[in-house]
Amino acid sequence: MTQLRGGGLSIFWQTLLLLLASVAVVFVVTVALFVWSPPPRPDFNSLSDIAEALAGRKIPRERRWRVMVVPRDRAGPVDLSPAASDRTDADDRERRLGAVQRSTPPLPDPDMVSSDIFTARLAHRIGVPIEDVRLFFEPDQRSNMPFGRRGDRRVIVRRGEPLFFDTVVAGLRTDDGWRVVRTPPRAWLASWQQRILMLFGLSLLAVIPFAWFFARALAKPIRRIADAADRMGANPQAPLIVEEGPTELRVTAHALNRMQQRLSAYLTERTNMIGAIAHDLRTPLARIAFRIEGAPDEMREKVQADIEQMRAMIAATISFVRDTGNIHIVEPVAIDRLLADLTTDEREIGRPVTPGRIEPAVVEGDPMALKRLFQNLIDNGVAYGGGVEIGVVRIGGEAEVRIADRGPGLPDKALEAMFQPFERGEPSRNRATGGIGLGLSIARAIAQEHGGSLILANRPGGGLEAICRLPIRG
User: Fold this and answer.
1) How many Å apart are CA 329 and CA 89, to the nearest integer?
2) Of 153, 173, 189, which one is at a domain's C-terminal end?
3) Which domain holds residue 158?
């Protein structure tokens, strides 16, 4: 009995470690982005921004926020001039105000309100009468206090400057009509939302290599076990599965190996028993043949014919047992050349065998066993169909060999039964009309031992064809 080899974590622990590693990577990337990325900047328009957009010029502001720029070495003089970010504050906003010329004054949206104080201050900033100015806005802040009124909405005023975080509509009367400005719609993705998406994207990119290596390491032994199990189903003498990988897969491989060993031992014992029985039957048959020599001629001839038939069946049975389940030679076999040689040999002795479409294909197997497989199919086609046509094509990863005749065919329900041992399409047991019914059984057994398949099918227009599929050498 094979023993389990050590090494390799279980699937449970591998999965758990992958999840923990993924969480750790996501956490590290998240912290790094929050530490090094700038904080989200509220996008708003002040009353001075609205005045400048309406007037179409820079307007001196009552209060300017000034930024002190400190040199890196902290040894030089301090620059008290407005910083670049202060001077271009209106240029890098996501919702910059745009002005259009209209013939009618602007109208508010349903949720907008107006304020005489703010309108008057706007007119003062521009330097025009209040009658020439319109200002409508949406209050930005909703009260979030536990006992605040639900309709309580406010406008932030900071250092005397109203700040509008939502939509604003304003208008200025000019000689050509009304100059109207309006806050553009919000972007589908704000800059802070784009940074969050970048966070998820970077986290995903960081985790993908771990997940890929984990999936590959887990899928490789599973695929190897599946391939080995498929080979074992076709040939119990196939090599055992390598017991490696996670604990669960090593246990599975070990169980499959033990099952294959028991199955192989059972088949070997059964084969030896059948061969022994068939071999031992030769002795009583010989005694019967000797004792029948003194019988009348008519009886002796009939009994002798039965004895010869039984000997032929015993010989075929021994051959079947000997030649199936014992594929030991595995080498590349060019199916196209093997079939071409068979066709040439058959035509040299005058048998009606013609080549069809033959494509090059190489399989792994025993060349003698494969030759016997196709020879049995040719013999059946010639015996029952009067002649065959041989072809081979590549379909996906398989070589499909078709040996077709134009004989009477078979009922559909009898096609699969023809592969049973001692089953014949011709119901009599007359040796002159065919074999004893093991040719197709041997052919299918050889095909399955090579990981392939063999079926029979009726041809359109009459006739029968044997279709053998074998895996192409990878």
Assistant:
1) 83
2) 189
3) 45-189
